[in-house]
Amino acid sequence: MSEMNGESSGRQVFLDYLRVAACLMVIVIHCTEPYYIGGDGRCQVACAADAVWVSVFEMICRCCVPLFVMTSAYLQFPVGRPTGEFFRRRLVRVGLPFVLWCVYYSLVYDSPLVRVLFNFPDAGGHLWFVPMLLGLYIVMPMLSPWAERVSERELRGWIWAWLATTLLPFARKLSFVLFGDPAFGSVPYLWGEAAWNHFGTFYHISGFVGYLLLGLYFRRFGRSLSWGETLKRALPLLAVGMAGMSIGFYTRFGGKFPFDAPYACVVDFELTLEYCSTFVALGVIGWFMVFRKFVRTGAFYRRLILPLSLASYGTYLVHMTILLTLLPHFKPNLPMPVAVVSLALTTFVCASLVSLVGRRIPRVGSWLFG
Question: What are the helix (H) ranges across 33-151?
């Protein structure tokens, strides 16, 4: 029965598979970035083949961060314990390791340590995810009474409203093309935003809160579907999402290689890859539907997937230092797709081993690796 409903000793089995896959996706993204972000921060692509492969890896793996958010929402939202206890558990499990690794990356890679008081260190850019997640944890208890009683129809309405906000990155781009004025800077303002006000009309229902709502929807109203029905619904979402992500990214280079431009172009070229933009959101929903069918609890799950899932947060925290150490041995010596795949797998294995072993250190293991 546990294999049929995806539960094993109180665990949602499919989330373990999803967590491991999303962790590997994150590492693939970071192994891909050196092929379009140069060491000096410029947007640099050596050839058309590299641009194609970057687009392929991005379209497959870009949904990683929202999938982590949905996983957390599925398990934690609505909050089932007193607010103080929930905050204490999340701060110890997520916040404390984040702070310690911020200190580590600051000291090892010569970032100003005082910056930890304000933001993540430069060398630990991947850590941006944690403050965003902590921000969602802050609002979860406040929204939980509503989440417990919301109807499926109402929740669908809010999700559709949020999906409409995933068009905002494209609206910003259109606004800048039509009305951009250098006198007002390069940031297009929309619907009440201004240099003195960052909180426009859709601020409070946009961003990663939508993935919180999606996680809630699948937890409360997600129906069990056959593989056939799952693929019938998920594949079109994945196809549209991946096509939009990859084509939108690749075409921005204009077919001119080698490509070299200021770093601002990286942000601009990632328009269709933004985590809270439409194509990524469609891909996230498709991936989540597919992974809900991964419910097997045999030896492969118990001996590999479950341990890797339990260690995944530590793997995420430590992987960048391993990746940066290994990168010079892979990038110059192998064809781009081979280098990315082999570097990602090697980094994932090494980081997972460090996390698995580190979590066993008495007392301090959980502080460091969650």
Answer: 48-61, 64-76, 83-90, 96-108, 129-149
Place of tokens 């580190």: 358
pLDDT, tens digit, 9 for 90 and up, residues 276-323: 999 999 999 999 999 999 999 999 999 999 999 999 999 999 999 999
Answer yes or no: are the C-beta atoms of 351 and 318 closer than 8 Å: yes
**pLDDT class of 3 with cuts at 50, 70, 90:** very low
The burial of 332, by beta-carbon neighbours within 10 Å (0-12 exposed, 13-18 middle, 19 or more buried), is given as exposed
Q: What type of residue is 302? A: R
Helix axes 96-108, 129-149, angle to 10 degrees: 160
Rounded Cα distance between 8 and 17, Å, is: 13
Cα–Cα distance for residue pair 106/98, rounded to 1 Å? 12
From CA 165, how far away is CA 209, in angstroms rounded? 11
Antiparallel, parallel or unpaired: β 259-261 and 43-45: antiparallel
User: Which tens digits make up the pLDDT trace of 157-179?
Assistant: 999 999 999 999 898 888 877 77
Rounded Cα distance, 356 and 144, in Å: 33
Query: Which is more confident, 11 or 227?
Result: 227
pTM (predicted TM-score): 0.91
Residues 6+ away with beta carbon under 8 Å from 166: 206, 210, 276, 277, 278, 280, 281
Helix (H, G, I), strand (E, B) or coil at 295: coil
Gap between the Cα atoms of 352 and 344, Å rounded: 12
Beta 7-8 vs 11-12: how paired, if at all? antiparallel
Q: Which token pair is 357?
A: 């072993």
Burial zone of 216 (CB within 10 Å; 0-12 exposed, 13-18 middle, 19+ buried): buried
Residues 6+ apart with CB under 8 A from 197: none
What distance in Å separates the CA atoms of residue 91 and residue 66, rounded to the nearest whole number? 20
Query: What does the block give as tokens for 233?
Result: 């619904």
